Amino acid sequence: MHEALDVPAWVPLAYLIAGICFIIALRGLSSPESSRRGNRYGMAGMAIAVGTTLGIHDIASLPEIIAAIAIGGVIGFVIARRIAMTAMPQLVAAFHSLVGMAAVLVAAAAFLNPQAFGIADAAGVIFPVSRIEMGLGIAIGAITFSGSVIAFLKLNGNMSGKPILVPARHLINLGTLAAILILIGLWTAAATPEPWMFWTVTVLAFAIGFLLIIPIGGADMPVVVSMLNSYSGWAAAAMGFTLGNSAMIITGALVGSSGAILSYIMCRAMNRSFISVISGGFGAVADAGGDAEKIDRPWKRGSAEDAAFLMGQAEQVIIVPGYGMAVAQAQHVLREMGDKLKEHGVRVKYAIHPVAGRMPGHMNVLLAEANVPYDEVFELEDINSEFSQSDVAFVIGANDVTNPAAKTDKSSPIYGMPVLDVEKAKTVLFVKRSMGGVGYAGVDNDVFYRDNTMMLLADAKKMVEEIVKSID
């Protein structure tokens, strides 16, 4: 059995309070209006958890711990100040990798010195229950680390966003996962566990994390980020059992379960099978789109003055932001454009696709940063029916989430994904840099060539600035 380290009676109560703060934080983060309050509760809970842990530490000296916290805090502060919102998805992936590696290092430390963690008998043999906890913790942590590294490289452009298909990948993945589970079982059941079993599990887990993510294409990357977030939570929870730390167990379980629920919701929103996404099932047809579908077709080009006139005369304009808006950092001037249109009596609404951008809620965060009123922002299922009654759909840097091929082309990598029906508006104004680029999924968009579409080719921020100047 696990020999819990002696702790003062107030410690479990403090950890419970921290856990309650985290639960309230998650509740607050479920709505834009309460997100700031939710963040404050999360910060308070983490402060209580860290302070409690520091108060009962008995492994390293307090100055060493404070020095480590200070170094990490400075690095985190500098990164947070410098990071662009467009790079937030890869930053999240990088942070997930750190959580995974932390779980691996804690498990390795517990394996090398189990008596210091209270998980071994007098002879130094680790208790079977603790072996299960450590085995699962290091496996999930290693998968999270290597998978998050691949996600970071794909999101950051260091690796192609297209699926990288390994021959017999499903057989390799299943075999590797089976080997990990079998080794954890053998290591747990052994009277005197062999070190090679533990380290082999670690190496195989690092490998499977790599193999699971490389076949997943860019269109499914938001789900991957959410899924890795869930993995990092379960890794932390497993290590909480090893450390006998209830705060880690509570926090890890909250992060793991909420991440899993979000991943499931996003898969439903994309008409994806969750099992197919996490096993690399999607992406096998990703090369069916892209260059093969990119042919010369007639299209109409408009100017900022044209766009300003059309929107100024409209009764309702629906703005559809995408990753191109994030790259150009055009959210503030976009809100200014919306404000000027409202001064002219135009109804302005913002349509958000669940996977617009590179991570869950990416567009919501950007619009909130620009102080766009929450009551003007609508999710896909709430606003899709309004496009047919709208005068103008103003699409700024959103490609895949407005592509009607998702509804008609079974060979498309985005087939089956619900999309915003912008083509049903009387006029579609589509802002993008050039006609040469395609979305992250690598497929061309038929909306570009529709009779009711006017292409506005320019940097998104500069184009919207010109439109604002042209609105009388």
UniProtKB/TrEMBL annotation:
Gene Ontology CC annotations of this record: plasma membrane
SUBUNIT field: Complex of an alpha and a beta chain; in Rhodospirillum, the alpha chain seems to be made of two subunits.
The EC number(s) this enzyme carries: 7.1.1.1
Organism of origin: Allosphingosinicella indica
InterPro entries: DHS-like_NAD/FAD-binding_dom, NADH_DH_b, PNTB-like
Record's catalysed reaction(s): NAD(+) + NADPH + H(+)(in) = NADH + NADP(+) + H(+)(out)
Family the entry assigns: Belongs to the PNT beta subunit family.
Subcellular location as annotated: Cell inner membrane
Keywords: Cell inner membrane, Cell membrane, Membrane, NAD, NADP, Translocase, Transmembrane, Transmembrane helix
Domain NADP transhydrogenase beta-like: from-to ranges: 13-469
Major subcellular site: membrane
Keyword Cell inner membrane: yes
Biological role stated in the UniProt entry: The transhydrogenation between NADH and NADP is coupled to respiration and ATP hydrolysis and functions as a proton pump across the membrane.
Transmembrane spans: 12-29, 41-59, 65-84, 91-112, 132-151, 171-190, 196-216, 247-267
Membrane topology according to the record: Multi-pass membrane protein
Leader sequence residues: none
Protein name as it appears in the record: NAD(P) transhydrogenase subunit beta
Highest classification ranks of the organism: Bacteria, Pseudomonadati, Pseudomonadota, Alphaproteobacteria, Sphingomonadales
GO molecular function: NADP binding; proton-translocating NAD(P)+ transhydrogenase activity
